[in-house]
Automatic annotation (TrEMBL):
Active site, renumbered: K182 (proton acceptor)
GO molecular function: pyridoxal phosphate binding; transaminase activity
One GO BP annotation of this record: polysaccharide biosynthetic process
Family per record: Belongs to the DegT/DnrJ/EryC1 family. L-glutamine:2-deoxy-scyllo-inosose/scyllo-inosose aminotransferase subfamily.
Domain of life: Bacteria
The entry's keywords: Aminotransferase, Pyridoxal phosphate, Transferase
Protein name per UniProt: DegT/DnrJ/EryC1/StrS family aminotransferase
Length: 383
């Protein structure tokens, strides 16, 4: 099976893990701090504002908790998002309000966000679909002017930039995911960035039980009774550890190589699929934008999309659609929303395999099978 995603780890990551084993310190420690500092440098921000966590989802929850949302508050987010974003909104007691997206890019425009705002809107969560920054600059400007917090769900966008500025630094907070399907992987893990210094410090406390000063070995030198606890408010334990941070540090060093190969694969798909009838390829990012190339998505008539996906699966190629519209999930209460761009994209879009482990021959085989499946299904189900 040619998989949609596949982590790229090898001897260098294994050696880094072996060093952690030799040091016999697997938990939150010096390698975690070093990884946070390296990622902060990658973003161009202060390391005190960056926190390595056990998942990107934990980052979303902490980011929204730091905003002190209350019942009756609303948070706007694009409907094609991962469930973690909507879950984080609900868990904070707020209400998710879904905005539409451009049917080709699957990113919301500033106008899409604007139409969803109400006097109750306290925050906007924006996803950068497939690693493409989208309209984040104008959305950030609109949120700042209205006094609305902006959280960037940069899970897919670890290397994305706009005019040289890292995606994730345009809003008030951002998170990245490092799970086994992402571009930079640590097995499980994620990074949180919080722009405001006080909120960043609070997020760090909440990520480790709410402790103002952890009671442990590392604090024995600075506190006479280091076992006593100071907990201004309760938190949970969602911090990262040195074992996964060691993997992440290697992956961060390899990031240009990993993204470069993804870029090559996307270019090869473009060449192999450019003349397939009724098949639309991903639109190129506008000038000044750099993508992480997390997804490569094609679009086709709704009458054949599902059958084409089934045909490819039968031939050993796994495809899917990410992300299914959240406004249609009953628990989120958005089923009455009128989002034509989202609906159009959801009926037509298919994500193809994309990871650095693909050979050129693999990519050409996926393209050949897709070309054949589209042609056969168009002939069998005429317009």
């Amino acid at each position: 099976m040619i998989n949609l995603f596949q982590p790229q780890v090898g001897a260098e990551e294994l050696a880094a893990v072996a060093e952690v084993f030799d040091d016999r310190w697997l938990g939150h420690g010096p390698r975690t701090k070093a990884f946070e500092a390296a990622f902060a440098e990658h973003l161009g921000v202060d390391a005190d504002h960056v926190l390595f966590l056990n998942s990107g989802t934990s980052g979303l929850f902490l980011a929204l908790e730091s905003l002190d949302l209350a019942e009756g508050d609303e948070v706007v987010l694009p409907s094609p998002s991962f469930v973690a974003a909507a879950n984080a909104v609900l868990t904070c007691g707020a209400r998710p309000v879904f905005c539409d997206v451009d049917p080709r890019t699957l990113n919301p425009t500033a106008e899409d966000v604007e139409r969803a705002l109400t006097p109750r809107t306290k925050a906007v969560v924006v996803l950068h679909y497939g690693g493409v920054p989208g309209d984040v600059v104008r959305i950030a400007e609109r949120c700042a002017a209205a006094g609305i917090a902006l959280v960037e769900d940069a899970a897919c966008s670890v290397a994305s930039r706009v005019d040289g500025r890292a995606v994730g630094t345009f809003g008030d907070a951002a998170m990245w995911s490092f799970d086994a399907m992402k571009v930079l992987v640590t097995g499980d893990g994620g990074m949180l960035y919080v722009k405001d210094a006080d909120r960043a410090a609070r997020a760090r406390r909440l990520a480790y039980h709410g402790l103002a000063q952890p009671s442990g070995f590392g604090y024995a030198k600075i506190s006479a009774r280091w076992w006593e606890m100071d907990i201004p408010e309760p938190g949970r334990r969602v911090i990262g550890n040195d074992l996964t941070a060691a993997i992440g540090a290697v992956q961060l060093r390899r990031l240009p190589e990993l993204v470069g190969r993804r870029r090559e694969i996307c270019a090869l798909y473009d060449r192999e699929l450019r003349d397939v009838p009724e098949l639309l390829l991903p639109p190129a990012p506008p000038p000044g934008q750099e993508s992480t190339h997390y997804f490569y998505w094609v679009q086709m008539p709704p009458r054949i999309r599902d059958a084409v996906a089934s045909d490819l699966y039968g031939k050993g190629v796994y495809t899917t659609f990410r992300y299914a519209p959240l406004h249609k999930v009953p628990v989120y209460g958005g089923r009455d929303a009128h989002l034509p761009g989202t609906d159009r994209a959801a009926e037509r879009t298919l994500c193809l395999p994309l990871h650095p482990g693909l050979s050129d021959a693999d990519v050409r085989e996926v393209a050949r099978l897709l070309r054949a499946a589209v042609g056969e299904r168009l002939a069998a189900v005429p317009a």
